[in-house]
């Protein structure tokens, strides 16, 4: 599967989210997409899946069966879980019996008669995963697949990924939960500054390395905008602007009194090298549960941000 001189923006005069990107994904690839919020990760996933057409350039070699599980499952539909999955099976030319293996593997038996609108986030995410897997996908796109899942479903997901690539399929994942940590052979791709950079195969999440040949260098595009590429099947999709870049927030550090009356330069928090803090840097504190802190720090470092863990003042042992 190949992206050739691919560019995308949400409106004619809007800034480019991706610009003249080249990317090759051979059969059997597991690719993890990283990058800050708003960088274009979910947009890239929709372009790969075929649910969003590129503004310029082309996607070629897309497998005929695509499974796409969006980050936010659209529950505003008048179906129970069983009725929805049966209809999705019908869209793919399958019988309702196709849902049975996924009901068992993902632990969904108790959800079958529940209306979609009554599902919790984690349960809705299971339904989204199941519909993406009803027919064996040649391309599986997973946007935050581990978010909200229970232990049974989290344990099954890496095995499902392995099954897809073992048959020559391609899996592309955006995952802040780091659910594939330690999984061998993962190609890590960083989305940012309108392009895609390879972080390498099997590299630790906080190490940047170069994967020679993982990306083809972008070249100037002279092609006219391509017609919309219809997806292989019908998939529920999140809102078109879900991943649109937002203007950066402006934060002003509190000034300290100096003889000249000027604000003090920012001070790096403990554990962050002072050289990592520029003159206009802003320190942002994020409160997370103690058990998730290390994973959050690894992800921030993989995205290029200096980050450390420290206990919150006056917080109990369950938060830092």
From TrEMBL:
Family annotation (SUPFAM superfamilies): P-loop containing nucleoside triphosphate hydrolases (SSF52540)
Top-level taxonomic group: Bacteria
Record bears the keyword Zinc-finger: no
Keywords: ATP-binding, Nucleotide-binding, Transport
Pfam families: ABC_tran
Biased composition (Low complexity): 209-244, 251-261
Cross-referenced InterPro entries: AAA+_ATPase, ABC_transporter-like_ATP-bd, ABC_Transporter_VariousFunc, P-loop_NTPase
SMART domains: AAA
Region (Disordered): 198-268
Annotated ranges, domain ABC transporter: 1-216
Any one GO molecular-function label of the UniProt entry: ATP binding
PANTHER family membership: ABC TRANSPORTER ATP-BINDING PROTEIN ALBC-RELATED (PTHR42939)
Official protein name in the record: ATP-binding cassette domain-containing protein
Lineage of the species this protein comes from: Bacteria, Bacillati, Actinomycetota, Actinomycetes, Streptosporangiales
